[in-house]
Amino acid sequence: IIINFSEIHSILGHPKTKAFINHCGTNCIYEANYHGIPMVGIPLFADPPDNIAHIKAKGAAISLNLIQ
C-alpha cells in the first residue's frame, strides 16, 4: 500500500497494524517506534543499512536484503 505521508500515524496507530514495511530511513524508524510497531526493513543505500542493523539488535525489526 502506498499512502499519503500525513496518513502514516493513523495507520501505524491502528490496532490491527501488525508490522511496517519500510526503507529504514530515520523518520520511518521514529514513527514505528512511537507506535510500538515492529518493522520489516528493506535497506537499499546510504544510512538505512546501518539503521536496520541497530534496530535488529534491539529486536524491533527484521531485514529483507534485496541486494546480494
Automatic annotation (TrEMBL):
InterPro entries linked to this entry: UDP-glycosyltransferase (IPR050271), UDP_glucos_trans (IPR002213)
Subcellular location: Endoplasmic reticulum membrane
Record bears the keyword Endoplasmic reticulum: yes
Domain of life: Eukaryota
GO cellular component: endoplasmic reticulum membrane
Single GO MF annotation: glucuronosyltransferase activity
Topology in membrane: Single-pass membrane protein
Similarity comment: Belongs to the UDP-glycosyltransferase family.
Protein name: glucuronosyltransferase
Organism listed in the record: Gulo gulo (Wolverine)
